[in-house]
Amino acid sequence: MSNLAVWAPRVLSVLRIVAALIFLLHGTQKLFGFPAPPASGLPPAMSLFWIGAILELVGGLLLLIGAFTRPVAFILSGEMAVAYWMFHAPRNLYPTLNGGDASILYCFVFLYLVFAGAGPWSVDAARNKA
Any stretches that span the bilayer, and where are they (predicted)? Predict the structure, then answer.
């Protein structure tokens, strides 16, 4: 088991990078219609969905490179908690039925990053070595 534990910090970085890439695509979809526009269309500027898309794009980019990971992850975790309780939970009690399972997972992955940090493959780690 100790052989696997050696990899834990690097796998933390991989988790952060993969989660950020997927999360970032939600922002590009809402703001630019890439890779495909949302079914409801692009959100109007300054609307709640537009602000969420900005958070997803900018926050996703920052998490992707591992910059300011703890505060960014805290904000994004909160965004996902709000998204779940505001838009998914009122539709149905069960996350698998209300479409909110991704919001819950993002919320808790980002909450974990608040405490665990970015891992060794990050701007945060490089900045702390200097």
Answer: 7-25, 45-65, 72-90, 102-123
